[in-house]
Amino acid sequence: MRDEKLIKLIKISLLSVMAFLLMYIELPLPMFPEFLKIDISDLPALLGAFALGPIAGVTIELFKNILHGLLATKTAFVGELANFLVGAVLVFVSGYIYKVRKSKGGAVVGLLTGVVCMSLFAAILNYFVILPLYETVLGFKTSMVVGAGAIINPNIKNLNSFVIWMIIPFNLFKGVIISAMTLALYKSVSPILHKEHIEQRYKDSQRIIDRK
Prior knowledge:
Blueprint: H1 2-22, E1 27-28, E2 37-38, H2 42-52, H3 54-71, H4 78-100, H5 104-138, H6 142-152, H7 159-211
Antiparallel strand pairs: 1-2
C-alpha cells in the first residue's frame, strides 16, 4: 500500500512538472486581447485526473501553479490563483464524471461538462475576484481591460459585456482544445500511468491462485 502511494505521488509530481513547463508556452489569439493567451498546461492535470482520480488532477493543478508562482510569476500570484481555481474546476468535474463512468462516452461527457462549468466559473471569478485583484495589486485598471476588448469586439461596453464576449468564449475555446488533446492522447498514455497498478493487480491475482 505504501509503495502504491509513493508511486502515485511520483506520477503526480512528474505530471505537475510537465504542466509547469507547459505554462511557458503561451499563444496569443487574434480574436482575444493580448493578455488572454492560450496554454495547454491543464493537459497533464486532465490526464492525471483520468488515470489517478480527480483529486490527483486538482493536486497537479495546485503544484504547477505553486511552482510557477515561486519561479516565474509576473502577477504577484494573482494569475496563478486564477489559473488554479479555473483549472481545478475543469479537472475535477471531468475527472469525477469519468471516474463514475469509465468509457469513451463518459470521457466525452465529462470533458464537455467540465468545459462548460469551467467557463461559467471563470466568468464569475473574473468579475468578482480576479479583475478587481489585478486592479488592486498590479494597478491593471478594469477600464483598460474593457477598452482592449472593445477594440476587438464593439459589443463590449463594460465589464459585464467583457466577461460575456471575452472571458466565456476564451475559456470555451481553450477547454475544447485541451479536451480534444486529452481524448487523443489518453489512450496511449494510460498504460504508462497505470503500469505499476496493473502489475500489482497481476501479482495479487497470482498469489490468490497459488494459495488455491
